[in-house]
Design brief:
The chain has 270 residues and is mostly helical. It folds into two domains: 91 residues, Serine Threonine Protein Phosphatase 5, Tetratricopeptide repeat (Alpha Horseshoe); 136 residues, DNA Cyclobutane Dipyrimidine Photolyase, subunit A, domain 3. Helices cover 53% and strands 0% of the residues. Helix 7 crosses helix 12. It is globular and about 60 Å long.
């Protein structure tokens, strides 16, 4: 890599070609280029269109009114205070912006923990609450998940979206993390590294501690989901086209899934 990198480019394509030449190893691993535009102008345009009330009501749905501001916050184009002030300016009652502001607070919390933990962000903060030891989880991501050919319409779609856009809705991140750790029994660190390789908004603070929350090494229990939950918040766009509909890995009540996934959890807790 050159000691002094270029700062001015004739076009976005010129920038992309330059980065491919400067970082050939990264380009060889993945040549996908996200359509997300960087820079202050793009960030301000998104900031003008946030709707705190709709965000609060629909944020858990994949087609909900999420802000898509996280890449700009992650790279310092927008500050948390700036987003908070913009959200409050759009409502008559501060309570109507409370959910969005609270999510900004979580991001600040992750960063403060990262400042304290440093590289320990990659270590289990607590033991797994799953009945399995840490050494019973595989250390590497399997190719079928990474390449989007696990055979589950939702999981494969999330994998493709991650690689091609550099983004995943937060709910999809939780589902994917739960599948990786609990259904496939892969160490959360492997999944966290995979996400950081592709996410435009990825940083070890919110990424790693969120994976640990799902895994149960930074929470009191493992996070799981079932097909009904996924179908509800995706409006069925994956389930209705999935060849495994009605007989997939996510079928069943939460009680049944917990028994199936964590048969030793009760004994380990006792």
């Amino acid at each position: 890599m050159s000691a002094d990198m270029r700062r001015a480019f004739d076009s976005r394509d010129d920038l992309i070609d330059y980065l491919r030449r400067e970082f050939p190893q990264a380009a060889a691993r993945s040549d996908e280029v996200s359509a997300t535009r960087g820079g202050r102008r793009a960030a301000e345009a998104r900031l003008r269109h946030i709707d705190p009330r709709r965000y609060a009501a629909t944020r858990n749905y994949l087609d909900g009114a999420v802000t898509h501001l996280s890449p700009y916050i992650r790279h310092g184009v927008l500050s948390l205070a700036e987003v908070r002030d913009a959200a409050l300016s759009k409502v008559r009652r501060y309570a109507d912006a409370a959910k969005l502001v609270s999510e900004l607070g979580w991001r600040d919390y992750w960063q403060r923990l990262y400042e304290r933990l440093g590289d320990d962000i990659w270590r289990d903060q607590e033991p797994y609450k799953t009945g399995f030891r840490a050494d019973e989880y595989a250390a590497e991501m399997p190719d079928d998940i990474v390449e989007g050919r696990a055979g589950l319409a939702c999981i494969d779609a999330f994998s493709r979206e991650l690689r091609t856009t550099g983004y995943l809705h937060n709910h999809a991140r939780m589902w994917m993390a739960a599948y990786v750790v609990h259904w496939r029994r892969i160490a959360w660190q492997a999944g966290a590294r995979w996400f950081l390789e592709h996410l435009l908004d990825g940083d070890p603070a919110s990424n790693n501690l969120s994976w640990q929350w799902v895994a149960s090494t930074f929470s009191h229990k493992p996070y799981i989901f079932n097909r009904e939950n996924l179908e509800r918040f995706t409006n069925g766009i994956y389930c209705h086209t999935c060849p495994l509909y009605g007989r997939c890995d996510f079928e069943g009540t939460y009680e049944a899934l917990n028994r199936r996934l964590f048969p030793n959890a009760a004994a380990a807790a006792g």
